[in-house]
C-alpha cells in the first residue's frame, strides 16, 4: 500500500471521532462586537470548513463546522467610529483611566477567559488542525502572557512613579497611549499571536479594532461576551470579514493610529500604503522569515537532528520561527540525512485529537498543491526527495519531505515554504551560509550547531548584525515571552516581548515645571489630592 493510501486511511468517519472532541452542531455565528454591544448580522456569511476531512460515501469530504459574518463597509466604519469615540483624542474614559484600574479590567478578563478553555481548545483543533496538546499549550501560554504583561506594566509604572530633577526642572515621565489600534494576527497562532499585540495595546490605554485571522475566526466567539463585559464600550471592537474589505475602509480613513499585523511583508506593505498619513501611523509588524540552521562538523548530530526535527516540523512547519533551511557540512551531511530521515519516519501522522500526533491536516485548502509544486521544481533542478514517501499527500495531509541538495536555482531556496518541506544545502566553508543570510531579505533568527567554542564565536559576531536571535545548539523559537522577539530587514518592525510590547504601543510623555516654590506647591497639591491620573506617585503592588 502506498503512503498516499495510508494517509487517506488516517481520516476518520464521523462515528470514529471521540465524543469529547466532536462539534455536534455547526457554529453559525451571527454576532460581532461594536461599542460594547453584541450585534447580530443578517447579511452574507463565510462558510468554515475544517482541515479535518471525513470518510463518506463520496470520498474524503472536509468537515463543515460553521460560518462567520462578512460585514459591510458601513458596519466596519461603525466599529471605527466606536473606537475613535472611546479614545476621544486621548480624552476618553479608557486612555485617561489610572493604570491600576486598567490592570483590574484585564485581570477580570483573564479570569473569565479561563472558563472558556475547553471550548477554545476544541475550536483551535478543528479550525486550523493544531494537535490537542499544542492547542492546550497555546491557550495556557496566552493566559500566562496576559499575567506576565500585567506584571511587566506594574514594574514599568513603579519605575515611573517618581519625579526627576535635572538642571532646575522638575519632571515626571510616564507612558501614554497612541490611539486607535488595528490588530490582526496570523492563522498559525490565532489566539496567542493576536493577543500578543491586542493585550499590550489595550492595557496601555489604546482602543482596539480586532480582525480575527482567516483560519481561526470561530474561536473568538466564546470571548465576545467577555470582552463586552470586561471593557468599556468602544474600547474593544471585534469585526469579521474578508481582509481586503475590512482593511481598506479603516486605513484610508486616516483614523488608525497603530497597525499591529502579523503576516507577510507583501500584505503589510499594501496595508500601510493605504494610510493617507504615513508619518502618523505607528506599525508593529511580525513578518516573513527563512530561518536557517548551520550544522558544523563537530556538532552533536543526535541533538542537532532532534532540534532540527522539532524546528522544521512543529505544527507542520507552519511557524515564522520554524527552521526553513538547513546548511549541513559536507563531511557529515550523509550521516545527518540518514538520521533525519529515520527520525521523520517515526513521527505520528494523524488527526488533531490523537495522543502524541505530530503531523496534522493543513488548514489552507491550496497548501498541498503549493508544496508539491515546490518539490517538483526542486527535483527538476537537481534535488531529490531523501526520505521514503516524502511529499506524498492526501486531501489536507502532507507527508514531510527532505530535499537535497538544494541550490539557488530552486524556488524553495528563496520562498518561505511555511509547511513540512525541509531543504538541505551542503557546505564546505562557513562563508556559504553566512552569505545566504547576508543576501536574504529576512533577518529573524539562526541556529548554530557545534561543540567548538571558537567556531561558534566566529559565527556569532557576524550573525548578530544580520539576525535578531542566534540560537546555539537549539531550534529557533519565540519564547520565553520575556525575551525580545523581532527581526531585521523584511522580518519585523517593532519588538514584542511582555515588556517591549508595552513600549511599542505607547510613547514617553512628561510633565515638567521649573523648580520653584509656586510650581512645587501646584504639583504637591495635584498629587496629594489625586487630581490627575497621569501625574501621580502611587505605587502599584
Protein described:
This protein has 541 residues and is an alpha/beta fold. It has 2 domains: 32-42 and 70-286, Aldehyde Dehydrogenase, Chain A, domain 1; 291-480, Aldehyde Dehydrogenase, Chain A, domain 2 (3-Layer(aba) Sandwich). It is built from 17 helices and 25 strands. The strands form 7 sheets. A 7-stranded mixed sheet has the order 15-18-19-14-13-21-22, sandwiched between helices. A hairpin with a 2-residue loop joins β16 and β17.
* Total strands: 25
User: How many angstroms separate the termini?
Assistant: 64 Å
The number of domains: 2
CATH topology description of the largest domain: Aldehyde Dehydrogenase, Chain A, domain 1
User: What would you call the structural class?
Assistant: alpha/beta
Count of alpha/pi helices? 17
What are the segments in which pLDDT stays under 50 over at least 5 consecutive residues?
Answer: none
Residue share in helix: 25-40%
Largest sheet: spatial strand order: 15-18-19-14-13-21-22
**Percent in strands:** 15-25%
What is this structure's SSE topology?
Elements: H1 3-10, E1 27-28, E2 31-34, E3 37-40, E4 45-56, E5 59-69, H2 73-87, H3 99-113, H4 117-128, H5 132-159, E6 164-166, E7 169-177, E8 180-184, H6 192-203, E9 207-211, H7 221-230, E10 236-238, H8 243-252, E11 258-262, H9 265-273, E12 282-286, E13 291-295, H10 301-313, E14 323-329, H11 333-345, H12 367-380, E15 384-385, E16 393-394, E17 397-398, E18 401-404, H13 411-414, E19 421-427, H14 431-439, E20 442-443, E21 445-449, H15 453-463, E22 469-472, E23 488-489, E24 492-493, H16 500-504, E25 506-514, H17 517-528
Parallel strand pairs: 1-5, 8-9, 8-11, 9-10, 11-12, 13-14, 13-21, 14-19, 18-19, 21-22
Antiparallel strand pairs: 2-3, 4-5, 6-7, 7-25, 12-24, 15-18, 16-17, 20-23
Amino acid at each position: 500500500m502506498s503512503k498516499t493510501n495510508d494517509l487517506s486511511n488516517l481520516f476518520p468517519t464521523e462515528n470514529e471521532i471521540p465524543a469529547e472532541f466532536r462539534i455536534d452542531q455547526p457554529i453559525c455565528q451571527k454576532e460581532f462586537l461594536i461599542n460594547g454591544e453584541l450585534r447580530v448580522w443578517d447579511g452574507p456569511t463565510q462558510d468554515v470548513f475544517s482541515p479535518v476531512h471525513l470518510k463518506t460515501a463520496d470520498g474524503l469530504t472536509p468537515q463543515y463546522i460553521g460560518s462567520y459574518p462578512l460585514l459591510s463597509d458601513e458596519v466596519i466604519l461603525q466599529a471605527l467610529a466606536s473606537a475613535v469615540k472611546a479614545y476621544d483624542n486621548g480624552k476618553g474614559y479608557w486612555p485617561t483611566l489610572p493604570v491600576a484600574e486598567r490592570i483590574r479590567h484585564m485581570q477580570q478578563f483573564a479570569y473569565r477567559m479561563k472558563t472558556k478553555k475547553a471550548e477554545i481548545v476544541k475550536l483551535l483543533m478543528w479550525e486550523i488542525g493544531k494537535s490537542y496538546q499544542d492547542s492546550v499549550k497555546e491557550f495556557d501560554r496566552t493566559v500566562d502572557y496576559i499575567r506576565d504583561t500585567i506584571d511587566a506594566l506594574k514594574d514599568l509604572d513603579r519605575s515611573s512613579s517618581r519625579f526627576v530633577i535635572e538642571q532646575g526642572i522638575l519632571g515626571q515621565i510616564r507612558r501614554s497611549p497612541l490611539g486607535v489600534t488595528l490588530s490582526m494576527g496570523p492563522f498559525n497562532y490565532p489566539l496567542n499571536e493576536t493577543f500578543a499585540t491586542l493585550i499590550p495595546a489595550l492595557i496601555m490605554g489604546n482602543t482596539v479594532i480586532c480582525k480575527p485571522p482567516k483560519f481561526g475566526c470561530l474561536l473568538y466567539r466564546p470571548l465576545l461576551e467577555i470582552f463586552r463585559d470586561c471593557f468599556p464600550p468602544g474600547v474593544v471592537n471585534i469585526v469579521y470579514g474578508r481582509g481586503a474589505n475590512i482593511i481598506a475602509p479603516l486605513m484610508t480613513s486616516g483614523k488608525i493610529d497603530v497597525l499591529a499585523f502579523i503576516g507577510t511583508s507583501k500584505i503589510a506593505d499594501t496595508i500601510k500604503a493605504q494610510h493617507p498619513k504615513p508619518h502618523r501611523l505607528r506599525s508593529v509588524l511580525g513578518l516573513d522569515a527563512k530561518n536557517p540552521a548551520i550544522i558544523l562538523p563537530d556538532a552533536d548530530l543526535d541533538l542537532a537532528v532532534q532540534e532540527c526535527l522539532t524546528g522544521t516540523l512543529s505544527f507542520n512547519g507552519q511557524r515564522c520561527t520554524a527552521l526553513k533551511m538547513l546548511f549541513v557540512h559536507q563531511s557529515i551531511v550523509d550521516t545527518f540525512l540518514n538520521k533525519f530521515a529515520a527520525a521523520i519516519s517515526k513521527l505520528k501522522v494523524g488527526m488533531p485529537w490523537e495522543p502524541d500526533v505530530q503531523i496534522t491536516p493543513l488548514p489552507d485548502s491550496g497548501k498541498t498543491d503549493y508544496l508539491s509544486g515546490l518539490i517538483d521544481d526542486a527535483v527538476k533542478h537537481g534535488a531529490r526527495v531523501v526520505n521514503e514517501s516524502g511529499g506524498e499527500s492526501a486531501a489536507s495531509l502532507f507527508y514531510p519531505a527532505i530535499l537535497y541538495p538544494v541550490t539557488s536555482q530552486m524556488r524553495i531556496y528563496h520562498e518561505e515554504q511555511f509547511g513540512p518541506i525541509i531543504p538541505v544545502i551542503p557546505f564546505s566553508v562557513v562563508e556559504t551560509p553566512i552569505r545566504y543570510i547576508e543576501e536574504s531579505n529576512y533577518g529573524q533568527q539562526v541556529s548554530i550547531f557545534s561543540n567548538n567554542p571558537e567556531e561558534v564565536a566566529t559565527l556569532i559576531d557576524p550573525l548578530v548584525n544580520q539576525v535578531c536571535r542566534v540560537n546555539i545548539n537549539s531550534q529557533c523559537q519565540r519564547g520565553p515571552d520575556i525575551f525580545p522577539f523581532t527581526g531585521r530587514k523584511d522580518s519585523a518592525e517593532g519588538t514584542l516581548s511582555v515588556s517591549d510590547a508595552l513600549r511599542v504601543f505607547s510613547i514617553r510623555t512628561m510633565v515638567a515645571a521649573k523648580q520653584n516654590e509656586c510650581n512645587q506647591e501646584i504639583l504637591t497639591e495635584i498629587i496629594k489630592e489625586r487630581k490627575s491620573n497621569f501625574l501621580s506617585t502611587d505605587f502599584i503592588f
